[in-house]
Structures are given as structure tokens and as C-alpha cells.
């Protein structure tokens, strides 16, 4: 049975029909790479999966938490789905450790001691166990993004969504973040990631989805799809990215 | 003939002045805590458009900001008893200060809340925090940090404005000064000392509040 199941999902922003009937199934342990041109609806799709955007029509189920035509328990959904953003979005008044502890204590009423243990464990996982007491503005971009990953993991999500999480980073900081994602993938974490790192998508992903004008235009095994794109749009996109 | 300065007839009443200053400070302390508390609630309702409270607070803010403090005070102390709401001069003074500061701090804190980057609220939502939890744990402290200097200035304005409470016979510093002046007719000396006392109090309150803000709101060393 699939962990994430999306059926006939539609989303409009006013007159702009942004998602035009998305069908997608993600199994436990899948690493899905979502690619496509700017404006094709990748971020919107990710944001609907954890309820940051409402759904006009269609069905979304994540591990039993369901939305039918936009109605359902959003907070139940969000507890199953973690999200990491391009701009990190750490809470600036809290230390790295407090950033990670906040949701377990506030949302799950975990005791402070226990939340502290969780935070230490998650910071260790992203290689930042020595930064528990650092504030976000004392960390590099790469470190901030790793704290953001630890913060999402602290809620023990079933699936982690990553929206261009290395795009705001200086080139030399990209790899430390990708290494963490690679590690998570190897531990069996279910991941859906929007990325422009094509080599990473091919090496780490087991499923590639190419979005074009609000639809899933082509999908399949990354190595196969990259080697032999079936549509001119994907071939053109791969060509354009490789030139860059 | 030049005027002969003589401060002795004023200083002889220094106990009255000090008591009055203590009452002014107490009024300010209570007014500041409750007024800022009211301002936080008002700012939340206004910034996040919590209906119908957003419009009620909007009306309240407009009324208070466009009427004189003295008239607000008279309305509470002399006007409300006609409706059967009676209170002592101290209660009226505190209430007027809370209502006045509440209105101004609603607007000040609202600006701080509205400057919250969208991404932080989205991050909190994605972690399954409710709106109220997001406000309390993610939005409030950085918002207060942004506007703290403006809030401190407003508290001082209200402290200085509390001198009009002498008009309803609340025995604060200005009331004490008026009383002393009516006894010794030493207007210059009396109000000179009183002015100096307000000035020192304002400086001390600013220092104290900036320090408290750094310690409990910003919450980290510079
Ligand atoms: N909050 C919003 N309000 C209105 N339009 C939006 C909003 N977010 C995205 N869009 C529009 O939806 C389309 C898809 O955007 P997005 O999902 O961000 O694409 P991608 O992530 O693939 O670049 C674009 O046309 C964009 O302008
Ligand atoms: Mg995007």
C-alpha cells in the first residue's frame, strides 16, 4: 500500500489553474525527485501535500490522514508530513536546539527533558551536535538548513518534503546538505524533493517526476528517464539544465 | 529687585513629593503591564484579522487616539457614575492609563507582528502548530523585540501624561506639587523640583525597561 496517494488533484490561484489533475503514489522508502521549469507547479504540489495550500478538487491521503476536496484534518496531515524550505525559515529568537524542541513540546506535549533528548539526537544526525546553543544568525546557510532538517525530523514524519533546499546556498555549502539527505534516504526515509541537482536526483532518487504546465508530464526510474526522455519537453528541459 | 530663590519651603515637603512620585511610578507600572497586555491582544486581533474583534479594536484605537487623555479620564471618573459605575480616583486613573496605552500599543505591536516573515509562519504551520501556538511561540517575541524601543517611549509618554490624574485628586506627583505650591507660593522652585523628578523618572524607566526587554524579550546577549 502506498504511503502517499494523490488522486485527481486540482488547484487554482484565482483564474490561474496551477495543478491540473495530479495522480501520484509514493511508497514507503521512496525517494522522489520532482523536476520541471519554474512555474510548473512543483512548489504548489509539495505545499498541498502538507496542507499549506488548500485543494480545490481531488483526494490526498498520507498514511491514513486524508483530505477530500480540501476538507479534512489539516493538523493530522501535517503531523505525518515534514517540510524543509528553500529559505530555511528557522525561528530567529530560538537556539538551534530550541528550534528543534519547539514542535515536540508544543504540539505533542513531549516533556522538556524528552524533547531535549530528541533535539540532541536529531542535531547529531545532521552533524551539528555542537551547535545546540547557537542562534540561527550564528550559523552558516548550510548549517541553518541542516537545523531545519533536524527540526522537521523531530516530529517523526512519515514523509519529508524538500523544496529546493540547496538553492539559497553558496555552492560550497550545497554538499553538506545533500550529504544529510543522502543519509536519510539510505536509512529508508520517504522523501519527495524538488531539486535542480540533476546528478543528485539520478543517484539518490528511485523515482523521477517531470512536471510541465501543472501536470505530471513524464515519470519513471531516474536513470532510464534521464538516459532516454520520451517527450520533447523533458528532453529540452534536461538539455537546458545541463547547459547551465 | 531680583527674585530670591528659596528651595527650603519645597524641600521641607519632600516626603509629599516622594510619596507622589511613588504613586506615579506605581500607576505607570500597573498601567504598563495591563496596557501592553491589552495591546498584545488587540494587535493579534488586528494583524490576523480575527473577526469581529479586529474591527472592535480598530474602532477603540481610533477613538482613543483622537481624543484628549484628560477628557478620557474625566469621562471615566465623572461620566461613568451616571451609569452607576463608580470607582475611586486610583481605579479611574489606572483604567484610563490602561485604556490609553492599550490603544497606542495595539498599533505599535501590530506593526511588529506584520513584519514577521511569511516563511516563519509557514514553517510553524508545517510543524502542525495551531495559529495560537504559532503566535505565542513563533511570532510574539520577535515582534515585541522589533518594537520594544517604541513601546518603551509610549510607556514614558503615559507616565508623563499621568500628571493629569491630579485633576481627579489622585495624589500622584503633580497633585503633590500643586498642593505644596498652594501652601508656599513658591511656584518656580516647586515646579522646578517636580520637573527634575519627572525627568529623572523618565530616564530611569527607559533604562530599566530597555534592560528588562533585552533580558526577557530579546533573551540573548548582544
Ligand atoms: N500564493 C500564490 N498566489 C498566486 N499564485 C501563485 C501562488 N503560488 C504560486 N502561484 C502561481 O502558481 C504557479 C506555479 O507556481 P509554483 O508551484 O511556485 O511553481 P514552481 O515551484 O514549479 O516554480 C505559478 O504560475 C505561480 O505564479
Ligand atoms: Mg518552486
Automatic annotation (TrEMBL), chain A:
SMART domains per UniProt: AAA
Pfam families: ABC_tran
Cellular compartment(s): Cell membrane
Molecular function terms from GO: ABC-type amino acid transporter activity; ATP binding; ATP hydrolysis activity
Keyword flag Nucleotide-binding: yes
GO cellular component: plasma membrane
Family matches, as PANTHER family: AMINO ACID IMPORT ATP-BINDING PROTEIN (PTHR43166), GLUTAMATE_ASPARTATE IMPORT ATP-BINDING PROTEIN GLTL (PTHR43166:SF9)
Similarity comment: Belongs to the ABC transporter superfamily.
Protein name per its UniProtKB record: Amino acid ABC transporter ATP-binding protein (PAAT family)
Protein source organism: Azoarcus indigens
Automatic annotation (TrEMBL), chain B:
GO molecular function, one term: transmembrane transporter activity
Membrane topology: Multi-pass membrane protein
PANTHER family in UniProt: ABC TRANSPORTER PERMEASE PROTEIN, MEMBRANE COMPONENT OF AMINO ACID ABC TRANSPORTER
Keywords: Cell membrane, Membrane, Transmembrane, Transmembrane helix, Transport
Compartments where located: Cell inner membrane; Cell membrane
Pfam family, one: BPD_transp_1
Aminoacyl-tRNA synthetase is among the record's keywords: no
ABC transmembrane type-1 domain location: 21-209
Record field: transmembrane: 20-45, 57-78, 147-170, 190-209
Swiss-Prot/TrEMBL GO biological process terms: amino acid transport
Top-level taxon in the UniProt lineage: Bacteria
Record organism: Azoarcus indigens
Protein name: Amino acid ABC transporter membrane protein 1 (PAAT family)
Stated family: Belongs to the binding-protein-dependent transport system permease family. HisMQ subfamily.
Gene3D superfamilies: MetI-like
SUPFAM superfamilies: MetI-like (SSF161098)
Gene Ontology CC, one term: ATP-binding cassette (ABC) transporter complex
